[in-house]
Amino acid sequence: MEEINMLDSIERYIRGEMLPEERVFFEHLRKSSPSVDQMVVEHTIFLNRMNKYGERKQFQRVLEDVHGKLEQTGELSEFQPGRLVRIWKKYQRVVAVAASIAGITALAISGLVSYVSPKSTDTKYQQLSRRLDNLDKKQNALYSNIINEMKQKEPVDAKMKLGGTGFMVDVKGYLLTDAHILSNARAVVVQNYKGEQYKATILLADANSDLAILKIDDEDFKPYAILPYGISRSGADLGEPIFTMGYPRDEIVYGEGYMSAKTGFEGDTLACQIAVAANPGNSGGPVLNKNGEIIGVLSARQMQAQGVVFAIKAKYIYKVIDSLKTDTSYSSIRLPANTQLKGMERIQQVKRLEDCIFLVKTY
Predict the structure, then answer these.
(1) Do 286 and 297 contact (CB within 8 A), yes or no?
(2) Secondary structure E strands in 124-252
(3) 180 and 294 assigned to the same domain
(4) Fewer CB within 10 Å, N side or C side of the chain?
(5) Does the reported pTM lie above 0.85?
């Protein structure tokens, strides 16, 4: 019922039917809740696709009427030289209007998606961590109910500050994420797609590469038998298809795109650029190629452009692990070198990956 009410509110927001006070409140909700913002964008695209479908059906009816009239007048009974020219001149206005509708619809969809997406700030570069300290009372109550239904792992009386994504790099509970997610964190909790939570410890946070290593330090955690993916040292080629998984909302979200540049923001050689949908919360999520090899770690996006996202190259995962191994306590860490996902259909790949990707919450 709450989801139906939310969709009703989103539709009234998109159509401009909200009162000024309602609209101000709803826009605040969008800014503080990436999941609500994503629903607005997705519903806008859905409504415009429905409108486009209706326009196509209308155009089809126009063509059918024209066809019927041509048959009645006998203009379709046989072909004569020059008849096509006369028919075109007679009905070119209808065709022109239809072409204009198609063009305007495409522009409208693009414009509306830009309109309902979060407004750009003065910065050109935005890290993809989720801010959780500005949630309104209703949202905090919702989180509290969820937490109470599970075994308590969060620090008592602590507020969630940042959220992102992490993924397993060693079967014994070592996770990799982005360092900026862990900024000023006093405690970290990670949660899998089943809702199971575990306490985690920060072992290393490298500001230069923006990569960090966590260790699940919880008696409820059981080591994995194997990790299904490998971590690539070579990256990906331009135009190569890629896909991502992460937590821009409180459930795991899949996205797909392609490699669009070998360097990151303003030519940063530490990162690469990918074309994929990404929202706050995707930070620290893996970028994988079709074979299920990790080729990067999601980090940030360019604010003034849609679908321009940056990922830290996977080869730097090896470097940050080597830095950690200078402490002999961690010399047994073994990164997964080979993928078990090659040749699988994407749905099966995703099912194998889900258990290895975690929501990271800091306090």
Answers:
(1) yes
(2) 125-127, 130-131, 162-170, 174-178, 188-191, 197-206, 211-216, 230-231, 241-246
(3) yes
(4) N
(5) no
